[in-house]
Design goal:
alpha/beta; Rossmann fold; Arc Repressor Mutant, subunit A; 2 domains; five-stranded parallel beta sheet; two-stranded antiparallel sheet; 6 helices; globular
Length: about 200
Amino acid sequence: MPSDYVLIDFENVQPKNLELLAEHPVKVFVFVGENQAKIPFDLATSMQLRGKDASYVKITGNGQNALDFHIAYYLGELTLKEPDASFYVVSKDKGFDPLVRHLEHKKIRIERIRDLGDIPLLQVSKSASMDERITAIVKNLGGRGLSRPRKVKTLQNAINSLFANKLDASELATLMKELQKRKLVVVDENKVHYNLPH
């Protein structure tokens, strides 16, 4: 079975939701800048629990795009070793996009994503029951920490992304109503407040 690789640009994105990957056999690389001296405890714990499927790569040297070049090098090595694998570069840096397009042209399954919750293997089937859907949404939102959506539209986009952007407006409205009915989400005008279980 082909592997799934997640390569995190830690200078650009500090994910608070690595535990979303806990039940999936994903290999995770966290690329850390030369001057980044601290790793948050939650991230370190989640990485430790992954055992041999998790690695830190502390880059050497500074300079514009120094970390990006390290990720590009690892992508090259990994795609040669496992051309059938899927690769997810977690970064808000659009500078990766030309490389992603080039690798896609070479028939490599690769995507640049802004958040771990956008990884397709974490997305939920439309055929899931309401309870399964709500559980998946709560798990996804819980893993986002302080980066949870603060506005209704942003929350709807995050939920739709979790369902591979296959929900129509009425399905989204139903899920929003259900979240409010269960008092997991409070909407005040256009702002969203959370009451998620710990």
